[in-house]
From TrEMBL:
<dbReference type="InterPro" id="IPR004992">
    <property type="entry name" value="EutN_CcmL"/>
</dbReference>
<dbReference type="GO" id="GO:0031469">
    <property type="term" value="C:bacterial microcompartment"/>
</dbReference>
<protein>
    <submittedName>
        <fullName>Ethanolamine utilization protein EutN</fullName>
    </submittedName>
</protein>
<dbReference type="InterPro" id="IPR036677">
    <property type="entry name" value="EutN_CcmL_sf"/>
</dbReference>
<dbReference type="Pfam" id="PF03319">
    <property type="entry name" value="EutN_CcmL"/>
</dbReference>
<keyword id="KW-1283">Bacterial microcompartment</keyword>
Length: 85
């Protein structure tokens, strides 16, 4: 899984039938310091109702139908991250 921040929405009026009704969000992966990682931005299917600036867990290949295609999916909204420093 990837810890990420929601940074935007993706509008796609034409989608695969399996994605109809799905919300697509732009997410940027976060490093150990919880800062965005350059060049690590993805589009993910929102399955939990996430919004802009939410911290989320993204599963790279949590596909609706893995035999047809692979998709990133937001699987959790993160409330807090605790780290030993």
């Amino acid at each position: 899984m990837i810890l990420a921040k929601v940074t935007g929405h993706v509008v796609a009026p034409q989608k695969n039938d399996e994605l109809r009704g799905s919300n697509l969000l732009l997410v940027t992966a976060l490093g150990d310091d919880l800062e965005p990682i350059k060049d690590r931005t993805y589009v993910a299917v929102d399955s939990v109702g996430a919004g802009i600036r939410d911290l989320v867990l993204v599963e790279e290949y949590f596909a609706l139908h893995k035999q047809q295609y692979k998709a990133m999916s937001i699987v959790a909204i993160v409330e807090k991250v605790h780290q030993d420093k």
